[in-house]
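Intended use. Records like the one below are meant for learning the mapping from a protein sequence to its folded structure. Do not use them to infer anything beyond what is encoded.
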Amino acid sequence: MASVVSACGGKGSGGGVFGQAFKAFVVGDWRYESTAAHQGVVTVAPDGRWSAEVGKAGGKLSTVTIEGRWEFGGGRLAAHLDWSGPPKTAPCVVPGAPDGVGEGFSGRFPMDNGWSEDLGAATEVTYRNGELTLHFPTYAGFEEVEGAGLTVRCTRRK
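Structure written out for the chain above:
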């Protein structure tokens, strides 16, 4: 989930003009909800860390915190998950990540390793009217989304 909001150059420090622009876009607090009824807040820090408060609509799941690290550089976006659950030592990598995101952005990107084992081999990304939408068309991990993939909608918190 939080692989969606990974960010920028040299372990989060930002590299070059494009890296700084991407970092400026992604850093902050984002409210999200998914078609699998997950909801919460993802915080992306400029120092290369991220965290997410994850819960399920209707109180069906206790809120838990997951966290990790992100890095962006040379068109490669990587999100690391640090947790005590089943090991995911390899980061989720988006090798063709864009250098910037703006109003009307849309694209489909491959994903390798890490969460891609759960989420699928690609993500479709759009940013319109202040909403970042990630769709994982081959995801089938929850009965709520069986056959439809998983969609996660994120809006920046004020």
